[in-house]
UniProtKB/TrEMBL annotation, chain A:
Its main location: endoplasmic reticulum. Residues 1-15, 63-80, 124-141 have a biased composition (Pro residues). It comes from Miscanthus lutarioriparius. PANTHER family: SEC24-RELATED PROTEIN (PTHR13803), SECRETORY 24AB, ISOFORM A (PTHR13803:SF39). This is Protein transport protein Sec24-like. Residues 1-201 are annotated as: Disordered. Keywords: Endoplasmic reticulum, ER-Golgi transport, Golgi apparatus, Membrane, Protein transport, Transport. One of its GO terms (cellular component) is Golgi membrane. The lineage of its organism: Eukaryota, Viridiplantae, Streptophyta, Embryophyta, Tracheophyta.
UniProtKB/TrEMBL annotation, chain B:
It comes from Miscanthus lutarioriparius. One of its GO terms (biological process) is vesicle-mediated transport. Belongs to the cornichon family. GO terms for cellular component: membrane. It is a multi-pass membrane protein. PANTHER family: CORNICHON-RELATED (PTHR12290). Keywords: Membrane, Transmembrane, Transmembrane helix. This is Cornichon family protein. InterPro entries: Cornichon. The chain crosses the membrane at residues 51-79, 108-130. Pfam families: Cornichon. It is found in: Membrane.
């Protein structure tokens, strides 16, 4: 027999697991008593625990009626304190199939039950191993009557781990039916026997204190409530709770800090869904915030979190899972006539294969003759195995000429480089020229790639790269008000033809301007000139800007140091583009298929808010290197520019998400421009960009059982082929709020919430943005609490769904993220805006790592064997208490590595790794880590390399800080320890208490 | 006097036409008949003329001494002025879809108040014509 509680560990015998505070010892709800809802034994060893249950405690809990022949039927007749609360006919447990193991809770083998004679147990007679299954499900059990809301067409949701072993109809949800319900009870009170929490997560391994406030968390509790209103609803739910009641008169908040849920394993992709919906695309491409669709508007209004999706259309797939490419040839791409949906695995064939039914709009379409294939007895096409578009959620179609408005464009790169004095002094030009030169071979799209350069300070310098020249010609245009091109072509040239000219230009670029003392920067006119050069082809425009644009159209003011604006209604205006020129320019760029990437290097304010809007509406990206100095930041710029230039890029693309009847995507969040209400124009898109969107219901009541989504990205590949990448997913429609919570995807929710918050910060004060976030969290937990508050006595605990256990911490982390934290003094305006732009494009896993960075203790693993190091790196909670003064720690937020040296760290370790001694008080801000010739240093650099390889989209700059080195330690490390209390923000414990108080009110 | 009312009447008609034109552009955009670039450039072209006409209308009422009508038309002028001050008078092509609802609502309110003005000036025009004939 499979233990039904497969995901639990057997409770350690004889250890009181939780305790209620005295004040909380009121009669627990019926299911609180451990006895009758005996946890199905996992082994013979735990089975005798049933025998220890005192009959008095189980009196009120009537199992299924004896007629069902289950061992529960042998329970004593209703009597005792719970009789009234659980009438046999309506008792909460009578209605649920016992074999679901829902009432799992095992009394400890010691404690109140130890005195009960085993012979009184009703459970002693059947062999323990048969207890849970001996009770067959009542034929009219709750699941028989429950409308099964999850009915994916092709695949059944029957769970292999279902404890019923097939005796029951598959449960209607994919809620794990096998969790034990946990509640605590004072060990001293035999009337309310303590039930056993189902230890499951790593955090539960620590025993709560035996006395006083208990913090036991992570108990997956599944239980079935009483039938409401006579109808048997889907009552299976699991929730977790966190005891927060403190002992009266005690200052202790009553929370076990170590027991709080922490996402130390990073993002949890909902890959389980792939088992339920094998035809869906992988969640790395498409994630709903909750993988069900509410059936009615009223349900939507009770779901206070955002309802939507995160789409990452070009996510890198691991080896072996490459996206199949399909060419339909003469049949053309097969799409629905009415709603233009592409053929997908959920489409069904009818009329012996001559027609196919669109799964989104249910229209019956003709199958083209070339595509026809006969159906087998079950209605499947015989060739289904040869056709990936009918069996895989993610495919790529080769688009014929109807999908082109012009011949596919060649990949083209145009560089707009600020050569004013600050760029020259910081060594920026050398790094850029060298990096571009080293990338020339790897630029995608050989041999069609186009390239061009324009440099500018107070004038514009055009460069002629005509292939017949041996040296590039520079032409200076000083008229900034009326920009014109000095020559009609040869400014953007084919790389292969003009390779030698381009190379000689890049070689001479740093020297060309090395004695430039011009401090002005005419970015606006330069953008106009670049637009004129590129408008015919489109492509990618890379802007290297090292000062605030000061000349011509689009000049900007120093407005970032306006302290007075903070906290007033005008605060947000600092975060939106000041000059409409940049938005207009962005619109023009998008129209002409030009994507803009901004590289900003200024040590002073450079108005990223304005510059970034160029990237925001063209599908670009903002890179910010504050106070760039080539020796320190050179590597980072080099590798990130290299990535930007060489990654596979989809050109002149548009993306549309179709969904089935009744739902509609309303708002979109990310870097793109809306071409029509649901069409995202993306001049260039690559694997580092994700998009988020919100759903709304169009009808008050959904009539379908499943809603399908189809993401289609039409693009030109670098090789010059027009392609359509199609991701298809299905989600069930549910009528129950608890299902929505059950299927919630924290990563997607956090990603969407973060983007909404960043957008709100453009029109509102930071403070109110944070409050809105908190309000959303509170409302959703309150709604969830209301689902249970009737049946459970949950006074002193915060309850939350297992799927959202990390949500409170992540929302706290969003509030403390670079983009939203604090006020004026906490983050410089440019950094805040740059972080905001990054948060708008980051895929889910990188966003989560950005807001809740990984912290590792490194010194202990450095001495290990190199191949064991990776396995022994453990993420730590982000709190100062985790930092040991004798340790070396590494904080990785995806953009920066921060190496923290404890005060008591052995000097030789520091010497080996840094190559210098701390005793001389060196300036650690300028330090660069190089691999030196010793084991520790080699291992350390290996760790850094491994972490960098995990996420190639950014190169983490390594910064070193010593304990107590203020103020660097403060803003580099301490402000990233999101669980700690900082100026004006709450610590994790306070946050939980705050949320808890608000959910109760 | 008739001449004043006649001018006012034509001004109001012109304003209504301009606002309806803007509304049509927005509706076309919503139903995907034109792209946002064209839609916003068309709208932005007529925004300033509309504001100027509106101001002219108010000035006309003020100078001709029709205080009640001036008070009725002045709030629109003031509203336009505040929009201009905040640089929100032009539609933003990059955010036009997010602002579609707001922009439409704005113009619907405008059109309702303009229609009220239209009927009032029509009424006064006929009234003044009749009273002149009586004299």
């Amino acid at each position: 027999m499979q233990p039904p509680l497969g995901n639990e560990r057997p409770p350690p015998p004889g250890r009181p697991v939780s305790a209620f505070v005295p004040g909380a010892a009121v009669p627990p709800p019926p299911f609180a008593a451990g006895g009758p809802f005996a946890r199905p034994p996992q082994s013979g060893a735990t089975a005798p625990a049933f025998g220890a249950a005192p009959p008095a405690a189980m009196g009120g809990f009537r199992g299924p009626p004896p007629s069902q022949g289950g061992p529960f039927g042998a329970g004593p007749p209703p009597q005792g304190p719970f009789t009234t609360s659980a009438p046999p006919s309506q008792g909460p447990f009578a209605s649920a199939p016992p074999s679901q193991g829902l009432f799992a809770s095992a009394p400890p083998s010691q404690g109140p039950f130890a005195t009960a004679p085993p012979s009184q147990s009703p459970f002693t007679s059947p062999p323990p191993s048969q207890v849970p299954f001996a009770a067959g499900p009542p034929p009219t059990g709750p699941f028989a009557a429950t409308p099964a809301p999850f009915r994916p067409p092709p695949s059944s949701l029957a769970q292999p781990q279902s404890p019923t072993g097939g005796a029951l109809p598959p449960p209607p949800t994919y809620a794990r039916p096998t969790q034990g319900y946990y509640t605590g009870a004072p060990p001293a009170n035999p009337q309310f026997p303590m039930s056993r929490p189902a230890f499951q997560q790593p955090v539960q391994t620590m025993p709560p204190p035996p006395m006083g406030p208990a913090a036991t968390f992570g108990n997956q509790a599944a239980y079935a409530g009483p039938p409401v209103g006579g109808t048997l609803q889907s009552l299976v739910e699991d929730f977790q709770s966190l005891a927060l009641s403190s002992a009266p008169g005690s200052l202790d908040p009553g929370v076990d800090v170590k027991g709080l849920p922490r996402p130390l394993d990073g993002d949890e992709e909902p890959v389980k869904l792939m088992e339920a919906y094998p035809l869906n695309c992988h969640p790395r491409y498409f994630r709903l915030t909750t993988h069900v669709i509410p059936a009615s508007q009223s349900l939507v209004s009770r779901w206070h979190l955002p309802l939507g999706a995160v789409v990452h259309p070009l996510a890198e797939s691991p080896d072996g899972e490459e996206v199949p490419v399909i060419n339909f040839g003469s049949a053309g791409v097969i799409r629905c006539r009415r709603c233009r949906t592409y053929i997908n695995p959920y489409a069904t064939f009818a009329d012996s294969g001559r027609k196919w039914r669109c799964n989104l709009c249910t229209l019956l379409n003709d199958v083209p003759g070339e595509y026809f294939c006969a159906l087998d007895a079950s209605g499947r096409r015989y060739d289904i195995d040869q056709r990936p578009e009918l069996s895989k959620g993610t495919v790529e179609f080769v688009a014929p000429t109807e999908y082109m408005v012009r011949p596919p464009m060649p990949p083209s790169y145009f560089f707009l480089i600020d050569v004013s004095v600050s760029a020259v002094r910081s060594g920026l030009l050398q790094v850029v020229a060298k990096t571009i030169k080293s990338c020339l071979d790897e630029l995608p799209g050989f041999p069609r790639t186009q390239i061009g350069f324009l440099t500018f300070d107070s004038t514009l310098h055009f460069h002629n790269f005509k292939s017949s020249l041996s040296q590039p010609q520079m032409m200076v245009v000083a008229d900034l008000d009326d920009v014109f091109l000095p020559l009609p072509d040869d400014l953007l040239v084919n790389l292969v033809d003009s390779r030698h000219v381009v190379e000689s230009f890049l070689d001479s670029l740093p020297n060309m301007f090395h004695d430039n003392v011009n401090v002005e920067s005419a970015l606006g006119p330069a953008l106009k000139a670049a637009f004129m050069v590129m408008s015919q082809i489109g492509g990618k425009l890379l802007v290297f800007q090292s000062t605030l644009p000061s000349l011509g159209i689009g000049r900007l003011r120093l407005r970032g140091d306006d302290v007075r604006a903070y906290g007033t209604d005008k605060e947000h205006t600092l975060r939106v583009p000041e000059d409409p020129f940049y938005k207009q320019m962005a619109a023009e760029f998008t129209k002409n298929q030009i994507a803009v990437d901004i590289f900003s290097f200024s040590e002073k304010y450079s108005d990223i808010a304005s510059l970034g809007s160029l990237a925001k509406y063209t599908g670009g990206q903002v890179y910010h290197y504050p106070s760039f100095q080539a020796p320190t930041h050179g590597d980072k710029l080099k590798l990130e520019l290299n990535r930007d230039l060489t990654r596979e890029t989809a050109w002149e693309s548009v993306m549309r998400i179709r969904c089935g009847k009744g739902v509609r995507f309303t708002t979109y969040h990310g870097h793109f421009m809306l071409r029509s209400t649901d069409l995202l124009a993306l001049p260039a898109v690559d694997s580092d960009k994700a998009f988020a969107m919100q759903l709304s219901l169009e009808e008050t009541l959904m009539t379908t059982q499943t809603v399908y989504f189809q993401v289609a990205l039409l693009y030109t590949s670098s090789s010059g082929e027009r392609r359509i990448r199609v991701h298809t997913a299905a989600a069930p429609v549910v009528t129950d709020l608890s299902e929505m919570y059950c299927q919630a995807d924290t990563g997607a929710i956090v990603s969407l919430l973060g983007r909404i918050a960043v957008e709100n910060s453009l029109s509102d004060k930071l403070d109110s943005v944070r409050q809105q976030l908190q309000l959303k969290l509170v409302r959703s937990l309150k709604e969830y609490r209301n689902l249970y508050v009737v049946q459970h006595r949950i006074g002193g605990r915060l309850i939350f769904p297992e799927s959202l256990r990390f949500l409170p911490l992540y929302i706290l982390a969003i509030c403390k993220s670079l983009a939203l934290r604090g006020g004026y003094a906490d983050v410089s305006l440019d950094e805040r805006c740059a972080a905001g732009f990054s948060m708008m494009i980051l895929p889910v896993n990188r966003l989560l790592n950005f807001i809740y960075p990984s912290l590792y203790r490194v010194d202990e693993v450095l001495t290990m064997e190199p191949n064991k190091i990776d396995a022994s790196l453990k993420r730590l909670p982000l709190t100062f208490q985790c930092l040991d003064t004798g340790g070396l720690y590494l904080l990785d937020d995806g953009f920066t590595f921060l190496v923290w040296l404890g005060r008591m760290l052995p000097p030789e370790l520091v010497n080996n790794i840094l190559g210098l001694s701390l005793a001389n008080f060196p300036d650690l801000s300028k330090i660069q880590l190089r691999e030196s010739d010793n084991e520790l240093s080699r291992n350390f650099m290996k760790i850094l390399r491994t972490l960098r390889e995990k996420d190639p989209s950014y190169h983490q700059l390594c910064r070193v800080v010593r304990q107590g080195e203020q103020p660097r330690e403060g803003y580099l490390l301490l402000s990233n320890l999101v669980e700690d209390q900082m100026a004006g923000t709450s610590s994790y414990v306070d946050w939980i208490l705050q949320i808890h108080r608000q959910t109760q009110s | 006097m008739v001449f004043v009312w006649l001018t006012a009447f034509f001004l109001v008609v012109a304003l209504i036409v301009l606002v309806i034109y803007q509304l049509m552009c927005l509706a076309d955009l919503e139903f995907d008949y034109i792209n946002p670039f064209d839609s916003s450039s068309r709208i932005n072209k007529v925004v300033m003329p509309e504001f100027v006409l509106q101001a002219l209308l108010s000035v006309l009422f003020l100078l001709s001494g029709h205080w009640a009508m001036f008070l009725l038309s002045f709030p629109l002028v003031y509203y336009n002025y505040t929009l201009y001050q905040r640089r929100q008078h032009l539609v933003d092509v990059t955010e036009i879809f997010n602002q579609l609802g707001r922009e439409k609502k704005r113009r619907l309110f405008k059109i309702v108040s303009l229609i009220v003005l239209l009927f009032l000036s029509l009424f006064w025009m006929i009234w003044s014509v009749l009273s002149e004939e009586d004299e």
